[in-house]
Every structure is written in C-alpha cells, then in structure tokens.
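note to self: the first set is below, dont mix up w the second
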Amino acid sequence: MFKYILLILLAFLLTTTTLFNPAFTQDAVNAKLLSHVPFDVNSNDVWGFEKDGIQYAIIGNANKTSIFSLEDPEHPTLRYEAFGATSIWRDIKEYKNFLYVVADQGSDGIVIIDMNEAPENITHDFFKPKIPLQGDSVLLRKSHNLFIDTKGFCYLAGSNVGNGGVLMFDLNNDPWKPEYMGIENFQYSHDAYVWNDTLYTSEIYVGRMGIYDIADKSNPKLVTNTITPNQFTHNVWGDDKNHLAFTTDERAYAYLTAYDVSDPKNVKQLDVFRPAEKESTGVIPHNTHFKDGFLVTSWYTDGVRVIDAHKPDNLVETAYYDTWDDIYIAHTSYHGAWGAFPYT
C-alpha cells in the first residue's frame, strides 16, 4: 500500500471565502488531512524542503512565497514570506539549501531564497540576468515553471526570452548568480523534466511532449516529439530509471498518460487514466509527479489522485483526497488542487 499523508503539501487555488468556510469538507480514500492553513490570497504551486530533520512546506501565493515549518505537521508554523510580483502562476524548486522561484507575471526574474540558516534566518533576493540571444540580449523577467536536476542545472520553461523554450543555468559555482548555459528555443515549453542529458518538454500550444538531447547545452538537439491524447500538454515527469514518462493535458475530460521512452526515438503510449466516477464531469488534470512507482497527481476540483504505476500499461488508482467542495463551481473550472508534493 502506498502510504500518502496529506499535510499542507497541497496547494489550493481557492477564493478567500472558501478558504475560511467552516463547512469545508472532503472525501478521501487512503489519505488523511493533518492540517489546513487558510490564506487571504489565492495560492498556486507547492514544493517541499528538509533541513536538520525539519520539513518545510513552500507555498506559492498570488503575491509571495510562503515558507512553513512542519516540525509539528498538525500545526504548521509560518517562518518566512518572500514577497514579489502579483501572479496567478508561481513555481518553486530546491537545490542545496536554496529555493528557486519563478512567476509567469511581473518582473521577478528568479527569486532565490537562502535556507542555510533556516528557520532562524531566511533571506531572499532577485536575479534578473540578461540572456544573449541572436546577437542581442534580453532581460529575464518571468517564467512559467522550472526544474532542477541532480547535477545542479536549473531549467526555466515558458520565459519571456525567445520562443519561451527552456533556458538552462548552472547553479554550482554561485547559487546567487546562476550561470547561463544555453536555450532550447525550438518551441514554447510550459514545463520541463530532465534526466541526465535528456530534456522532456511540455509543448502545450502544439499539444506534444518534446524530447531533446542536451549533452551540449549550448546546442540542444531535438530527438523526437509525441502528440499527447488531448493535445494540450501541460506537464511531463519521468520515472527513476528514464524508462517511462507521464504527461497531463490541461483540458476538460483529459487524461494522465504513460509512455515507454526507453528508446526516445520510438516512444510508445502505454495507458491513459482519468477518474472513472468523474468521467462525465469534465474534471481537469494539472500536474503529476512520480515517486516509488506511484503517480501523485493534482486534479483541480477533484483534488489529489494517487495512481499505481508499477504496471504502467495498467494504471490503477489507490488513493485520493478531494480538496474542493463547492457544488456551485463547475468541475471544468481551474479551482481546487493546483499541485501536490510527494518527496519527503
């Protein structure tokens, strides 16, 4: 059985009224709510961080990044707020005691948060480099999402630079000043995932998953691209062996899809999944992440779904938690669970 404990590590895109609604109740199977923190602003994505045995929930809000200590997970403690541009979209990743945050509105560039002395002393700053492009330079103002691999390379997807393809930076020399390495400028990418020298992209506006060879980050090469079932490829994530990839299409009635990518030049679709009891409601999937053979997927008004992917050609749901209980909002809306973090 997959042991999935729902803490604050669910990000809610909710109205202020709903956040404070005492009648807020949910359905759940094999999942338990330990705490619920209301905000006076909307929220977006979520990530996690651990230091000295203390776990932290990192929450993207409309105008800031909020950091909570989960030392007592039933009573999360707000430790820091990094205020920035007002944005519907804000995403966070972590590398070696630093958090990196991007927003898809405003001009924050990259918000860098130093967690080395957390929880007593947390600081942040803004990094806004000029990116060389076709004989000119472009100020990095915004990005839709980011990914950081195990080698310390940071990948920005959907920025204001070029076509919105993936920008690549090295974080190893100076975490406050990421070193620009190159750009995959073939197509706008909504999201990115990297395994070694392979880049997977969610090319949402052309409805496909792209696979690129980035061994030479100054000269990325397209390997192949694959049209996803509902042709609005929002998110892509891989397994821990680079044999599988999983995508979500951010559309009503859309699927979570599993692929065999062991031969990146011959990608094979293995299975699709959407909640059987909600197939007629048009509920929308958002983000999926792979952990220990399971997929943890935020599904907007349907909450969080946990799917067993040990047999990727037969995806089976094993747990869920419904985070949205407003019967007056259509299932085809973008309310509910934006993201879920399963890695601590």
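second set (the one i keep forgetting abt)
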Amino acid sequence: VRATAFSVTALPAETTFDAIKDVFLILNNFDIPKGFSREVVKGEIYADYTQLTCARDPQTLKYYYKTYNNQTVKEFDLNSFDSNSKEILVLNTDASKQVFENVNKKLKPTK
C-alpha cells in the first residue's frame, strides 16, 4: 500500500535518470536492515535482510541494482549482449564494497 502511495504521488520524472533515481528512493523505504527479522536455530542467529534492490527501464532494456554491501546504483544494458549466445554470464554482485567519500576538502566558507 505504501509503495503504491509513493509511486502514485511522486512528481513525474523529466528524464530516465531521474525516474530510476526516484524508484530507488521509493524502494529504500522497504529495505530490511540486518537483524530486524531474525531467527535463532540451535543457538545460531539467522537474519533476513535486503540483499539486493533492482529496477529496470523496459524502453531502453537497462537494469539497475544496488546491494546491501554497496549502495551505489549500478547498470547493465541488455542491448549490449548477444541474444544468440549460448554462453552463460554471471556477475558477483558483492564483489565491490561501499566507499565513503570524504568531502572535507570541498567545504567552503559561506559568503
């Protein structure tokens, strides 16, 4: 219900970039952090969490995703693949870790 309310009331995006950004902002409301949903089995804790969030642009055949360990949105374009290929391609979505950018040097005094 909340997802519908967010998506119906969001302002129309002017570009595909803005639309995908808005989709991720809406989906962020439903992320499950580690430990929120958990179960203890024989003394060991098992936790559910949002491992991957994805969106797609059906017009351009581009898919976008971010993972629990790296919140940077990544893109892959289905148009760049050979649809006749028999080769199966895989991607380790957890290969890259989140980097926090230090912006201290970008700070400027107010005018």
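remember for set 2: Helices lie at 2-9, 16-27.
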